[in-house]
């Protein structure tokens, strides 16, 4: 079928639905919902057989709903409607939930149900759920709904007006009462607003939005007080404990520029009170309940270096800390070292927010890419053990190249890879000119970089980008990885594999040293960083400050033109009117 995907933003869910529909054999065009006339024009150009809208933030115009079947993805079960369904579920502590695909009718979300898929809601943030359990259920529901629609014989279920239509979960319901709310309530409030819109709060003489949250088992103090810092996060006391808050966003002043999230200590700057930095040990005991973004553990001959950075962003400081942790892990007597293994983002490369906030973004960009390259190089030159990158969630740009530096890449079935840098106006680094062609070939590497489209785990396996796809729920990924790694570590061929990879590295170094790849990549990156007129700076600013685009991104329009049926493509050409 020819499907038009109408999206409020090109987020992880939109990308995944787009990629999964394409792999299911459909031709898919994407258009952003940038106004009613824009959508009307898009529909006239694409003439789709069906329209799919993943969690739209604005209603599809009535005339489009009347002329075309419009399947709306709703992050809630059939009997729970409204614009903040998932937010309320997290805030109220629901453990079971679902995703529904219904046909937009006269009342928007009260149309017939084409598919409904249940899911669980573990106690994690909303954005994590959208990339995890909600994302899995949404893809399953969309594919089922489209398959049923295409069959022509399925009759969708009428809602008959059943269920609750609950009002928007506005900012007044998101506030934390530090003087009375227990830790459990504070955490639910934080999770329901992660990563947007954040929890509004005021302290230190400023108004803020709080992003992210994790409980703390040891530190205590006066409710609302900042007790300590750790790796950019702040710890604030509650009435019965404390919580760690990794990121803050200043409230936008009337008429002022858009604000954006930053590591909490960086956002506070001089407003941060004189509190101690309380680092967590790298080898954190299993019984501890606290926040840390890097930790290491061992199980027999396997070492696990787990890292989880908000938004998958790796600043200069985070890269340097992770490199130090990696070197420690390499000093341990293990045969297999697993990187990652968490349930959300693996890595998205450089921390564009920190770069944007820097006194000199060009200098910070250079420092960040250099630190990331140092980390990738350390992985590439590890020749005394097998290194596995375990992607429980998405990886993009330099973060994808970090994964490709490993000997094996294992990927959860619901993860996406974006192994390119084009959308930020960059050539790319992280030794991609070495790691990407050695996996997929020179031609395919250039194709991936040029198209700049998301790659599903299944597609990545077929291309050779990854070595194993683990089909499991997000919460199960870590256990599955541990089981697989233990099996490899105790297998008889592992020493031969380590010796073979060392020989290959020496052979490749003789053909073209890693230093040459690095120098060529960084020469082109440096030009983009230090040229004030380079597109990178405007693209970075628009991304960080979430400036709405004026049109659907070019790379998505190109994808639609390539995949559309002949008669539709002709209809969009100037000759076809």
Automatic annotation (TrEMBL):
Cited InterPro entries: ClpP/crotonase-like_dom_sf (IPR029045), Enoyl-CoA_hydra/iso (IPR001753), Formyl_trans_C (IPR005793), Formyl_transf_N_sf (IPR036477), Formyl_transferase-like_C_sf (IPR011034), HoxX-like (IPR047180), NiFe-hyd_mat_HypX/HoxX (IPR009188)
Classification via PANTHER family: HYDROGENASE MATURATION FACTOR HOXX
Region span, Disordered: 546-577
Organism listed in the record: Streptomyces ramulosus
Protein name per Swiss-Prot or TrEMBL: Enoyl-CoA hydratase-related protein
SUPFAM superfamilies membership: ClpP/crotonase, FMT C-terminal domain-like, Formyltransferase
Signal peptide: none
Gene3D superfamilies hit by this protein: 2-enoyl-CoA Hydratase, Chain A, domain 1, 3.40.50.12230
Domain named Formyl transferase C-terminal: residues: 174-251
Pfam families: ECH_1, Formyl_trans_C
């Amino acid at each position: 079928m020819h499907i038009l995907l109408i999206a409020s933003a090109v987020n992880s869910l939109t990308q995944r639905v787009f990629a999964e529909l394409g792999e299911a054999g459909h031709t898919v065009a994407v258009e952003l919902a940038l106004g009613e006339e824009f959508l009307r024009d898009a529909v006239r150009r694409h003439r789709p057989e069906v329209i799919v809208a993943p969690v739209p933030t604005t209603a599809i115009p009535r005339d489009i709903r009347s002329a075309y079947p419009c399947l709306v993805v709703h992050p809630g079960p059939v009997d729970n409607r409204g614009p903040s369904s998932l937010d309320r579920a997290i805030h109220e502590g629901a453990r079971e939930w679902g995703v529904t695909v219904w046909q937009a009718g006269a009342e928007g979300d009260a149309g017939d149900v084409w598919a409904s898929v249940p899911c669980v809601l573990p106690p994690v943030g909303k954005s994590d759920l959208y990339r995890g359990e909600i994302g899995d259920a949404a893809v399953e529901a969309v594919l089922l709904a489209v398959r049923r629609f295409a069959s022509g014989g399925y009759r969708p279920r009428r809602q008959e007006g059943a269920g609750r239509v609950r009002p928007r979960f506005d900012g007044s319901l998101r506030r934390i009462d530090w003087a009375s709310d227990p830790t459990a309530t504070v955490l639910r409030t934080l999770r329901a607003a992660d990563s947007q819109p954040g929890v509004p709060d005021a302290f230190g003489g400023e108004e803020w939005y709080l992003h992210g949250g994790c409980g703390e088992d040891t530190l205590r103090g006066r409710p609302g007080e900042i007790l300590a810092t750790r790796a950019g996060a702040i710890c604030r006391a509650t009435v019965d404990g404390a919580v760690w808050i990794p990121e803050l966003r200043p409230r936008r002043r009337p008429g002022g520029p858009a604000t954006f999230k930053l590591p909490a200590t960086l956002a506070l700057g001089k407003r941060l009170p004189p509190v101690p930095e309380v680092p967590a040990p790298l080898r954190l005991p299993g019984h501890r309940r606290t926040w840390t973004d890097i930790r290491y553990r061992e199980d027999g001959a396997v070492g696990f270096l787990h890292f989880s950075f908000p938004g998958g962003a790796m600043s200069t400081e985070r890269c340097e800390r992770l490199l130090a942790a990696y070197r420690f892990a390499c000093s341990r007597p293990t045969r297999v070292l697993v990187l990652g293994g968490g349930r959300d983002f693996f890595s998205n490369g450089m921390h564009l927010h920190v770069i944007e906030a820097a006194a000199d973004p060009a200098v910070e960009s250079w420092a960040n890419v250099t630190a990331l390259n140092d980390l990738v190089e350390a992985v590439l030159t590890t020749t005394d053990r097998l290194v596995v990158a375990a992607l429980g969630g998405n990886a993009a740009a330099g973060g994808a190249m970090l994964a490709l530096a490993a000997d094996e890449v294992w990927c959860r079935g619901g993860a996406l890879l974006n192994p390119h840098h084009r959308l930020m106006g960059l050539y790319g680094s992280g030794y991609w000119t070495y790691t990407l062609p050695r996996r997929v070939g020179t031609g395919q590497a250039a194709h991936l970089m040029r198209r700049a489209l998301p790659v599903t785990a299944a597609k990545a396996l077929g291309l050779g980008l990854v070595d194993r796809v683990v089909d499991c729920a997000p919460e199960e990924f870590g256990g599955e990885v541990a089981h697989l790694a233990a099996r490899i570590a105790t297998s008889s061929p592992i020493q031969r594999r380590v010796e073979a990879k060392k020989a290959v590295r020496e052979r490749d170094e003789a053909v073209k040293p890693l230093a040459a790849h690095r120098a060529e990549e960084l020469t082109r990156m440096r030009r983009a960083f230090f040229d004030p007129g380079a597109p990178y700076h405007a693209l970075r600013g628009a991304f960080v400050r979430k400036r709405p685009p004026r049109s659907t991104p070019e790379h998505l329009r190109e994808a639609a033109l390539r995949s559309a049926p002949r008669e539709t493509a002709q209809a969009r050409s100037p000759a076809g009117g």
